[in-house]
Design brief:
It is a single chain. The protein is an alpha/beta fold and about 475 residues long. It has three domains: about 210 residues, Aldolase class I (TIM Barrel, Alpha-Beta Barrel); about 120 residues, Leucine Dehydrogenase, chain A, domain 1 (Rossmann fold), CATH 3.40.50.10860; about 130 residues, NAD(P)-binding Rossmann-like Domain (Rossmann fold, 3-Layer(aba) Sandwich), CATH 3.40.50.720. It is about 35% helix and about 20% strand. The chain has 18 helices and 20 strands. The strands form three sheets. An eight-stranded parallel sheet has the order 7-6-5-4-3-2-1-8. It is elongated and about 90 Å long. The protein starts with a strand and ends with a helix. The structure holds NADP nicotinamide-adenine-dinucleotide phosphate.
Amino acid sequence: MRICVSIVEESVEGAARAVAEAKDGGADLVEVRFDLMPSLPTDLSPFKALDIPKIATLRTASQGGRFSGTERARLGLYQSCLRSGFDMVDLELGSPLLERRDRELRHAGVICSYHDHQGTPSPSSILERLVLASAKETLPKAAFQVRGAKDLLSIADAARLYSSTGKEFVLIGMGEMGELTRLRADRLGCAYTYASLAQGKEAAPGQLDLATMRSLSDDAPILGIIGHPLGHTLSPRLHHAALKEVGLGGRYLRLDVAPEELEDFLQVALEYDIRGFNVTIPHKEAIVPLLDRLDGSADKVGAVNTVLLQDGQLIGHNTDAHGVEMTFREMGVEAKGKKALVVGAGGAAKACCSFLSASGAKVSVYNRTRQRAEDLAKRFRGCRATDLESMTLERFDIVVNCTPLGMAGFPSGLPLPESVLGEGQFVMDTVYNPPETELLRVAKAKGALTANGERMLAHQALRSFSLWTGKDPGVEVMYRALREASG
Ligand code: NAP
């Protein structure tokens, strides 16, 4: 993949140093963003000796930059740049200088750029922008804000259509989900893509740093997590630590996918060659009928938290049940023959009931919406639904909270009557943020053995990672990443 590093320094000297650093870091070309300097420089001599293709750019405010000067000032700077060793200049679509390029910018390569920071239009509109931007024998570059899966599909469609002309182009999706277009610039057929010199030096939203882009060898997997709204998630930290540990490049992306775009996202996964992704609230059950097939684990649980792409097929797995199993094992708790109470009836509760039922526990399920508890109980041997009143009359050996109650951003408080908790129990909360919920605090005070959701998180992540990459970084890597995340 050819990479152009955007240089965002305030002085010519700083920019020249950054250009040299970008060259050493493996950049193929650089773009100096003169609009981000406090004033237009006059002495450009420090660039002369730097032997790497250079683009001069003065991005106007309407296109996401800071240049507010005249076209005459722009021409003056660009002409000085060309005399100081620059090879190309960036002109925005509609710039009057495009008409005068033969006269005033002779011998310069010209990139004709277009930016839309609001959204991504239809493939035909993108195509129209690219065609207009290439009208003066210029290299067309178009960048659009990506708002969701549909926008990513529009960019891929437009790239396919424009590629058939055989002409070079650059097409970029901006924003968090737009990262996919940067990582897959080669696959889209782009002449090159943009990167920052380092984290914190981004010239556009979603720009990745040079080292990250360079670490992406052909077999580096692109992974991610889909959910909506995708609030706080530690999964990227765990998987990036795992990728580093096994020496694979690759990226684990946060992908906010609204329910109405779930099907489009599956198309995105195939189109952009995503190796696999995690699935979280609210898609774990909704995704089941949309996949090509389910592996035994997902079939048993009836929910999917991991999807693997293999030979063009989308295969659903469930690694949450494994996470629950490993929590019990690490805590030294035997479930066989025990009386367990599971609170909640969503994906996590299903995974929990799957493990407890397979272990030979007698499981009672309590849920705010009683019908869901009954439906869940029917799936698993030894499971039945219960209500608040009956629950308080029983004594449970094991209690597991599978609701988001107590999680940061959700209502606090106990998910069940306090009298259900008692000495000698094992109480697990699938919530891991905060590390100690009110449920665990009260249970511990009453003499129960407790575990939060960290072990489940670490083990489900490890198994998902191994499914995608065939590698086992070891659970300690996941625990280390969790400790680092919690400071
Ligand atoms: P889900 O499928 O959306 O199910 C949520 C469940 O919680 C439903 O039974 C829902 O009841 C109940 N619930 C939601 N808000 C509630 C409230 N205010 N009061 C009472 N009950 C409420 O979600 P999920 O995927 O099962 O996740 C549930 C929890 O497990 C989350 O906190 C998640 O962080 C945690 N989890 C942890 C891990 C881990 O690795 N540690 C993995 C997966 C999940 P209704 O049926 O009435 O809506």
